[in-house]
Write a structure and sequence with these properties.
The protein is α/β, with parallel strands linked by helices and 171 residues long. It is built from six helices and five strands, in the order E-H-E-H-E-H-E-E-H-H-H.
Amino acid sequence: PNVFLSQWAAEPTVYKPLGLKKDIDVSFVGMCYGNRPMVKAHLDANGIKSVFAGYGWPGGAVSFQDMLEIIDRSKVCLNFSDASQPAISQIKGRHFELAAMGACQLTDRLPALDSYFSSDELVQWNDMDDLVVKIRELLAGNPSTYGQKARQRVLAEHTWAQRFDAIFRAL
């Protein structure tokens, strides 16, 4: 059969560091649904400055370019593995896009990600309290080192060119 298992990837000529000043502590760009509003409220309640942007958030949807700039300006970028259907988690393209941009990525726990990124490239959180602890630890340290390592991993293993090359070689 001509069925190939592949994973998301990133296009590094589009998703790349922009070199903007890191003036946002924590950000998330994406739709407002599921537990995301509770996460934002928990961060606010714990004094963590964050920017949440996208459809359903108070600021509304942002352009693609604005999304790239928010990510590049952020010290820590949150990511969520939840689907729009409750209780379904999945690897998403954004995991690879954030990494390609050299962003320090903090995502909810998804064991399948361990096959694509190591713990010094992408940080995972277990619950709301762990999220706050990890944000504070990252902001107290040098979060950019995670992003730099994640970008190197994407360039070495997770670009769309590499994904399609593997499929064409298998044909």
